[in-house]
Task: structure prediction
Amino acid sequence: MLEIIKQPWPWYIAGPLIGLTVPALLLLGNKHFGISANLRHICAACVPAKVPFFKYDWKKEVWNLLFVLGIIIGGAIAASWLQNPSAIELHPKLAEELAGYGITNYESLVPTELFSFQSLFTGRGFLIMVVGGFIVGFGTRYAGGCTSGHSIMGLSNLQWPSLVATISFMIGGFIMANFILPFIMTL
Amino acid sequence: MTENKTTISSFDTDHEVRALDTMCINESHLTHKWYHNIKYIIVGILFGIVFVKAEVISWFRIQEMFRLQSFHMFGVIGSAVAVGVLSVWLIKRYKLKTIYGEQIEFHPKKFNKGQIYGGLLFGLGWAMTGACPGPLFAQLGTGALAVIVTILSAVAGTWVYGYFRDRLPH
Result:
């Protein structure tokens, strides 16, 4: 059994389980699934600085911060005891493209050549980790949600603005991965 | 008429502020002791394990998705939405209540241009970092400690958005 669990889970197992988070949170306490809101709660809790956007009762959303704490713990449990022993299998075309940028290690879920403290001092490392992270935070709040809040919770509730947001996420990602990232990777 | 304005309870206005540009909020009107929140840690743990095991948090899988080289991520998101739609429909259809007996509430989301501008920006960042906010935390949990830099940058991005919010087109 454990051997089966250790294998990478197919989409038709993982997707429905992720979808079940929506009714689980609603039934447990009227909570609407969404993760990027936590970035706002962290701002409201730590550096509200009289900005009206951060002046609200963030303590009422502690459940969401604890949900994220759970995600961190879940990540640690999966990495410690349920990890797939073999490296990730990549599409050959992607492997070829990445090899061109010197990325050949697929042992970790994030490429160690890009995501490390040393890599922060390279052009591409700084852009991907610092600038990339910044626009993830800025963009999700500007859009009013991320993949969980809009693409899963919003679409589950058939909200068309969430569909607009989801299509925008995909267009942005498509442009970055195909047209801009190849340039960034050479820096 | 001014009296009406003053009778709006502080709770309602707080709800307005929290709901601002966010749909992921606590709709519950009940207050509980702190340990009632432990169940959300447990849901988070299960969710985090699925994230790792489905390789949803893999930078490589996100690159494949945006290059249309793999169906995996589309399958994950698509089937998650299908289950979510069905669940929400069932909850509304049978007027299901929470385990505390409270009516489950839904609020319509208003359209604003931020969903396009912000959405495009987030998409750019998503393909760079290979992670949306949830996976960022799961990556940290798997021991990719450098991701803390990305998370702190995301917090900074959120703060800068909040600061300039009134001057941005919505």
User: Anything to note?
Assistant: Chain A is about 65% helix and 0% strand.
